[in-house]
Amino acid sequence: METITLPKVILSRNTLTGPSVNKLTRTIGDLKGLFNDQKAFEEQDPARTAYEVESYFPVAEGTEGGLFFGITRLQPGLIGNEYVMTKGHSHVLENRAEFYWGIEGEGMMLFMDKSRNTWAEKIFPGSVHYINGFTAHRVANTGESILAFGACWPSDAGHNYELIAKNGFSKRLMKINGVPQLA
Ligand code: S6P
Ligand code: ZN
Fold first, then answer.
1. Whose C-alpha lies nearest to ligand 1, atom 12?
2. Pocket residues for ligand 1 (CB within 6 Å)?
3. Relative to the alpha carbon of 91, which ligand is closest?
4. Per residue in 87-141, pLDDT tens?
5. How many CA within 13 A on the CB side of residue 11?
6. Given its phi and psi angles, is residue 182 left (phi above 0), alpha (psi -120 to 50 degrees) or beta?
7. Whose CA is nearest to atom 7 of ligand 1?
8. In order of start, what are the domains of the chain with their CATH numbers?
9. Residue 177 CA, ligand 2 centroid: distance in Å
């Protein structure tokens, strides 16, 4: 057995490469129903990329005790007055926590607890965000360029997209008077 090997995955600023990297692209069309301004949403090209995710799953999904690692590159822009954002999710195993961190660009991390209280933290290169269990999370790009961020989460957390798709967050991140505000 080789005792010195090369890593399976390389993180180069905002990009994860290697044979073990899983890639996912979400288009604007995949975000149907999430934005407040339906008319503005329909004026968008549904095939346009909203974000790309590169993930490393070193163990099988659902494994207790393992970790997953991912990088997301979220495009800038507004749909109506609402910033382009990720779908957002909570975890199937609701007590599972997660770290996000800012790599490039600027944005806002949105949190919502089980009582539907919503709050936000600024994301910027070097910012670190701890997401408690029982807390839904999503990211919005409030800048003029790509927002790249990392995530690390338990391999048995699972993703629950349905709750957010159905009920949304209790507040939206809107551009009001030229600045991001929860409304
Ligand atoms: C996975 C981690 C991220 C997100 C990605 C896209 O747990 O939180 O990799 O999957 O940022 O967001 P979403 O809400 O569409 O999964
Ligand atoms: Zn998560």
1. 86
2. 53, 70, 72, 86-89, 98, 138, 151, 153, 159
3. 2
4. 999 999 999 999 999 999 999 999 999 999 999 999 999 999 999 999 999 999 9
5. 15
6. beta
7. 153
8. 10-182 (2.60.120.10)
9. 31
